[in-house]
Amino acid sequence: MTKFLEVKNLSVSFPTEDGLVKASNDVSYSVDLGKTLAIVGESGSGKSVSNLAIMGLHNRATTQISGSAFLNLDESPIDVISAPEETVRRLRGKVMSMIFQDPMSALHPYFSVGNQIAEAWSLYNEGSKRDGMKRATEMLDLVGIPSAADRVKDFPHQFSGGMRQRVMIAMALVNNPKLLIADEPTTALDVTVQSQILKLIQEIQKEFNMAVILITHDLGVVAEVADNVCVMYGGKIVETSAIDEIFYRSQHPYTTALLESIPRVDQFGSHRLKAISGQPPSLIGLPKGCSFAPRCQFVSHVSGNRCTTEDPELTEKAKDHFARCFLSTEQIHSLTGRNVKA
Amino acid sequence: MLKYVTRRLLYTAILLLIVSFTIFYIFDLIPVDPARLICSKQCTPDLVEANRHRLGLDVSVLEQWWRFIQGLFQGRTYGEGGVEDIYCGAPSFGYSFNRHECVSTIIADVFPTTLSLTIGAFVLWLSVGVSLGVLAARKKGKFADRASNVFVLVGTSLPTFITGILVVLFIVLKFHLVNPLELGDWKNPITDPIGWLRTFFFPCATLALAYAATYTRFTRSNVLEISSEDYIRTARAKGLSEKVILRKHTLRAALAPIVTIAGLDFAGLLGGAIITEGIFGLSGLGKLSLKAVLETYDLPIIVATTLVGSAFVVIMNLIVDVAYAYLDPRVRT
Amino acid sequence: MNSENILELRGLQKHFKVGGAFGRGKTLIKAVDGVDFTVGRGETVGLVGESGCGKTTVGRTVMKIYDPTAGSIIFEGEDISKLSRREMKVRRSKMQMIFQDPYASLNPRHTVGTIIEAAFIIHKIEPTGGRVKAIQELLEMVGLNPEHINRFPHEFSGGQRQRIGIARALALKPHLIVADEPVSALDVSIQAQVVNLLDDLQKELGLSYLFVAHDLSVVQHISDRVVVMYLGKVMEIATTIELFANPRHPYTKALLSAVPIPDPIIERKRERIILTGDLPSPANPPTGCVFSTRCWKVQDRCISEAPVPIQISPNHTLACHFPEGTSNS
């Protein structure tokens, strides 16, 4: 069965003076229409770069990209990595759209929000400027901006942070794309506004049957909206599976450590947080072996020095559950105690 | 927006009144007595006093200033108590007893020259600076960028008076592109555009060079900075072509600050015009005021040219602010 | 006053005048508008609320970075609200601040040693055993290698830089630390390290913390008591367990329900209170209760009359006319 987006062995590297930055390393994932894939990772884990590559937003002259990313369109599948730049450009905003973290800097300060939405619309639709503004008003209404008709000519600085993100969503969705990539869409927002925006994205996804890739560092947000999860570390996917598998039967020490290190509002008590020692790796000249090995508390449970000499492959540990670890399922579950029946 | 413009207009009018009074006050403080200067060899205190009355200097500064302002709007009669009364119609900037002409006539005579020079230079430097800057930014690190960098270095390191002398030496005297006898001849740009170009192209270019270089550098860095903004990435994510992104999104944001600086530089150009006019033998506002100060101490002309110069700055400021508010919606309040 | 309190705020106000040329069109922003709460000795008080609620302003006013418009700040039994900068200098060694962005708050041209030493120089302190030894001890205390004393801030990671900020704050042996979003700029896997460090230091040195943050999960973990602010006013104050298990103010309830929990099954069952609309402008706050424009329980009284904070139980203070009922949990 083919899914709407299928990413295979996608690598993105940036040559710099200090060496080659392997920002995204042999990454594969897929997402289907109507589903949400969450890509979780810390800063520098490479969670954004592969998606920017799918959108064709890297400068091809200064970026090394390999692998493939097929959009299975009705007409015929297109590999957006190898397709000509012009072809990919004609897919942007129409088939695939992206929204970003900071809605203030992502909107042009000199143009009215209606103008910016109408511009995106008129790229793929015949119609006058007035039709564009009419469509913009409809979109603003759809994303829940009160009295949209009055506000369509307002400028981004006249909106609050949450409203600006709504404007971004309206702009991204004006041509009914099939894929929405949301890069930390709520990180810059307050928590009550965050839940509004997440709810909005979910509603619109249902209405238009979109595939959504949600890039985030917040496992709470993942738990709230995702169907499938990719956990990234040091430019690689270390674990990927359906959401409950990840949260309740995690097979990678990084995922379990991350889940245990974050405080939760629903768990009281002055227990000490289980911090992950050390620092995230630099993406230049990654160490030999597993990138998480320097911070992993289970290294000694793997025979020999395998963790520091050999990089584990992403292997299927359970049905549709892949992890990059030498430990067997039984070993890791007995070590972490994470094998909860849902 | 309308409210903003009205408010700014009001401020500008008040500012101009204050500036004009300050000019009168400063020249009153200067210990040179024009009444004595125009007095002949057999000068008596009575004659000086009569002169002073004729020049209108026998009243308080405030009164002098007020009469001047009235003259601006109503026209004014000069030479009271002298042989003849002279009337200069509105707007009257005073009367030069030295040249026996209304100052407004004198200024009207030289103003087109100065305006040709400044506007010509302005258009030249803006078009060269901005297009070269955009080109350099788009071809960053390539030949065009490096070549424009050489231009920037040369342009910013050559003072205008050196450029002017070099231009005269090579273009006029060596290559005979302009007949030295025609140098500085006023030609009407509407009836004789070729002649006008011949007179003004090289002075304008001389004046424009340093500015064009600065603007190239400024535009380049602005375009590069804006290109890395998030909203340019958004524009790309929408599927816009690079051409539209540059023309609509990048340039709009990159050029807005240039408008501000360009307006103020344009106003400040009068200072530079004095040098350029001198080198190319143009008789413009700069030459007029220089002569009035250094040779004849013709107070009405000095006051009028100073006032025109400062009015120019103040009004350009107004235009810049309004233009900026038009360009950047965040400023409008 | 209660001698157990290291800090007591009484009717604290901080108003800012913004905008307007030629003295016209100025608007008054009531960033903090009458705030009362205390911080006990050795206690951690979390100050939470969304952006624009005034929590950061409270922290900075306590530090006298801003002069309060009205009200008093009683620190160790003395009202410091009207002290001059010079008079504050002595007291300031006893209250220190940790900032959100560890990189922006460290001078990039100075070594770690110089940065920490500055505290000794300004306050003319000569620690026993010499400054270098004292600095190395501080570095060790915050979990950094004492040999890195001559390194520059850019040579450290974000989490390590926050440790430097903490070491600097500890140099003068303060009694109170105002921490302004100390972990929100850090990576998830690093946040726990710094939270644990703050915990350990508190136990070791008997510090009191005023912990200003927007992340309720972190606040819940670190605080003994929590103050919830909205639009410059205190909505609710309670011990952490009381507040999180039994929120009485509708705003607190909405805030808590909005925090995602990293547990998909719980998330699927949870009912969210989605607040409509945006935070009103602090320049033009609603009449009556400031939360009335977004509250789902709003009644006429809320618009006509602002509720005052009332102590409803020994460890619970509330400013609401129609509080939520006590739940059984």
Automatic annotation (TrEMBL), chain A:
Main location: membrane
GO molecular function: ATP binding; ATP hydrolysis activity
SUPFAM superfamilies: P-loop containing nucleoside triphosphate hydrolases (SSF52540)
Organism: freshwater metagenome
Example of a GO cellular component annotation carried by this entry: plasma membrane
Name the UniProt record assigns to this protein: Unannotated protein
Places the protein is found: Cell membrane
Pfam families: ABC_tran (PF00005), oligo_HPY (PF08352)
Domain ABC transporter: 5-259
Keywords: ATP-binding, Cell membrane, Membrane, Nucleotide-binding, Transport
InterPro entries (alphabetical): AAA+_ATPase, ABC_Ni/Peptide_Import, ABC_transporter-like_ATP-bd, ABC_transporter-like_CS, Oligopep_ABC_C, P-loop_NTPase
Gene Ontology BP annotations: peptide transport
Keyword Transport: yes
Membrane topology field: Peripheral membrane protein
Automatic annotation (TrEMBL), chain B:
CDD domains (UniProt xref): TM_PBP2 (cd06261)
Membrane-spanning ranges: 9-27, 119-138, 150-173, 193-213, 253-281, 301-327
SUPFAM superfamilies named among the record's database cross-references: MetI-like
Pfam families hit by this protein: BPD_transp_1 (PF00528), BPD_transp_1_N (PF19300)
Keywords linked to the UniProt accession: Cell membrane, Membrane, Transmembrane, Transmembrane helix, Transport
GO CC annotations, alphabetized: plasma membrane
Bilayer disposition of the protein: Multi-pass membrane protein
Main localization category: membrane
Keyword field contains Ion transport: no
Domain ABC transmembrane type-1: from-to ranges: 111-320
Location in or out of the cell: Cell membrane
Biological-process GO terms, alphabetical: transmembrane transport
InterPro entries membership: BPD_transp_1_N (IPR045621), MetI-like (IPR000515), MetI-like_sf (IPR035906)
Protein name as it appears in the record: Unannotated protein
Species, as recorded: freshwater metagenome
Classification of source organism: unclassified sequences, metagenomes, ecological metagenomes
TrEMBL record, chain C:
Similarity-based family: Belongs to the ABC transporter superfamily.
Protein name: Unannotated protein
GO BP term, example: transmembrane transport
InterPro entries (UniProt xref): AAA+_ATPase (IPR003593), ABC_transp_ATP-bind (IPR050319), ABC_transporter-like_ATP-bd (IPR003439), ABC_transporter-like_CS (IPR017871), Oligopep_ABC_C (IPR013563), P-loop_NTPase (IPR027417)
Keywords annotated in UniProt: ATP-binding, Nucleotide-binding, Transport
SMART domains the record matches: AAA
Domain ABC transporter: 7-256
Native organism taxonomy: unclassified sequences, metagenomes, ecological metagenomes
